[in-house]
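Moderator note: this is an archived Q&A kept for reference. The question asked for a predicted structure of one protein chain; the sequence and the answer are reproduced below.
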Amino acid sequence: MRHLLLLSAGLLLTAGCNEVRSIGDRTLPTEVQSSNVKGEHRVAAPVITPGGGTFSAPVQVSFSVSTELASYRYTLDGSTPSCQTPEQNDLLAPLISATTVVKAIGCRSGYKDSPVSAATFTISVVNTPPVVTGFFVSPTGTPTGTGSISSPWDLQTALQHPASVQPGSTIWLRG
């Protein structure tokens, strides 16, 4: 049974919903999002963490719902999730490795479904060439060598490649 208690200034306390709602023009924040005083509870919208953005590497996404005993469903293809689809029992949080729209919905029996939360993840991986720290130079090397052991540079070419040979690089002399 629900108990209603009228407080001063037109505020209504609804027991069993953990909320204080306004009757007049005043409202107080509530942790549990409830639709109205008629007893229709609504699940709080899921929180997607991180909340989207641009990342330089793949990112793991997690979900949480503040409504007690609520679960969530999510999609990774931008489609709208539904509480009628089976619950995901992921042991690991999903890993987002490409641009993705993630959507989630909170669900609980006897409650209205939550609003759908959405976050866009843009993965912008910069493809950098592998760092080579050792270059090979030989008296029989050539200007067209790669600086590898199988195709060494001559010393003059090695010293003229500042884009390849960086401070701290090792130049192996063979000869």
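Archived answer notes: The chain has a mean pLDDT of 74.
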